[in-house]
Amino acid sequence: MLLQPLPEPAAERAGVQLLLLRDDLTHPELPGNKWRKLKYNLREARRQGHHTLLTFGGAYSNHLAAVAAAGRLLGLRTVGVVRGEELAHRPLNPTLTQARADGMELHFLDRATYRRKQEPEVVAQLLQATGPAYVLPEGGSNALALPGCAELVTELRAHTAFDYLCVACGTGGTLAGLATGLQGPELALGFAALKGADFLRQDIDQLTQAATGRTYSNWELHTAYHGGGYAQLSPELRQFIQEFQARHGVLLDPVYTSKMLVGVLDLLAQGYFRPGSTVVAVHTGGLQAWAGFGGAPE
């Protein structure tokens, strides 16, 4: 585990130690929270005798890319159900092209049907078309995803004491898992990457309830740092990413971690964090997304 100090002026003025947890370096193809969320799901799929994984995602989904890579590495068949009509995704973007190259079969659902993807009849129709499969939800966020994310907290605590643990949020599974692994006064902060993400609070409570039988009060969700919406890369965010890379030698992804760090630095400037505290921000990977934005900054 690599913890990189971030000597940001905002942190120094606030009297706060700011660290970047480089979870993006855990595996070249399955970095960060994607592997953590898949770990126990893959074990359960094997236990149930499944040889196929079926899951869901948008056209630029890091989760689809990770499941496709996991399938190739582990010899599992993978099926990705993509939001939107097939013609709207032709030609395939780099994320879907790589997923297909990794062996993933792509099935496209119109947006109205996709919104019903959790309904039993929709899942049954998909399984009838694709054959028996272990079904993973969008983003990989279910009760079995949480223990893998909680392990990050245990690993981190073996390296340093901390007060705040910050992570980007898409479906809320990673934040929910971190919350279950915290102790004492430690607090997890989630930064939503999509607009209108207040619904995630209920989703996170449902995930922790399903995984541990209880809800938690040791986390907060911040929804003001979506940067215009999911997968929206504004000129301001691109500039932030370039300047962060120049200062720290670390490339951030354009969808998740970059927005989280914008939020962390803004909260530091506001005096949100307690003086003398240690704040750890998690780089969860997702760099493959740059292929869909014309490539990473030079």
TrEMBL record:
Cofactor requirement: pyridoxal 5'-phosphate
Pfam families per the UniProt record, alphabetical: PALP (PF00291)
Species per Swiss-Prot/TrEMBL record:
Hymenobacter endophyticus
Q: Which residues form the Tryptophan synthase beta chain-like PALP domain?
A: 11-285
Which terms are listed as keywords in the entry? Pyridoxal phosphate
Q: What family name appears in the similarity comment?
A: Belongs to the ACC deaminase/D-cysteine desulfhydrase family.
Q: What's the protein name? A: Pyridoxal-phosphate dependent enzyme
